[in-house]
Write a structure and sequence with these properties.
It is built from 11 helices and 12 strands. The chain is an alpha/beta fold and 308 residues long. Strands 2-3-4-5-6-9-10-11 form an 8-stranded parallel barrel, surrounded by 9 helices. Strand 7 and strand 8 form a beta hairpin. Helix 9 runs antiparallel to helix 10. The relative contact order is 0.15.
Length: 308
Amino acid sequence: MNDVDVQVTEVGARDGLQNESTVLDPSVRAELVRLLAGTGAPRVEAVSFVHPRLVPAMAGAEEIMAGLDAGRQDGVALSGLVLNRKGFDRAVASGVDVVNYSFPVSEGFAARNQNTTVEAGVSASHEIVAAARGHGLPVVVTLSTSFGCPFDGEVPTAQTLRVAEQVMQVPPDEICLGDTIGVGVPTQVTALTRGLLALGATPAMHFHNTRGTGLANALAAVQAGVRRLDASVGGTGGCPFAPRATGNIATEDLAYLLAGLGVRTGIDIEAVIEVNRWLATRLGRELPAMVSRAGVPDWFPPQELRAH
């Protein structure tokens, strides 16, 4: 897979922390964003503009963004998650570089997670994409529960693509499919990627490793034509509203796999391992990423660790 470039969006400061029992102060989370921006990731999802009553671990988004204004690394875009127009307006006011609007493709999760419907989610996507265009901001629409729902069960590929087709009536820069509860397998990934490409969408993927298929799914996505993947330092993460959902695919594990295949990501694996150790100390536990535990072998070609 030589001569392939894949962008990794680091979501450890947002998705990685939102389900943790240890709630980090906004100043600590801002420092985490700074550290992650130094690992080679071109985009870091820094904050979530949800009500702090619903997700207390994500409180202080504006404070974090204000603290980052003076210390942003050149070329690293900061994104913010929004669930509705109010969240979008907060994100714009805070100075995010990329807006990530998310809603589910399953009615059960839409009702319990966002007190909405899939139809309303599609309508909001059109409004938010148009508004983002007016502000000159890149916008991603993430379709959560694209592979399965904790309440509705199986989510057929056709259902996810039907929602994606509706979203594409006002096309965002990317459509990202989220495996919210980590039930997806590579055959689904391939079918969904091909479907998105057929719709004219730029596909991205967000995988959780709940059942150990995360890296296999990431590889299938890249082979099918996906060129942007979400990942979280240390494999942290989960969803407060999805029972038994566990962490994202680990940034260091994904970068190691892709580097070994000759895929350029620009991620400095050793730098991610250092951030893993920093974060583990503050969370008071070892993080699940495998590469940080085992280390990078001496014979692993250094030139493959970073893009050139």
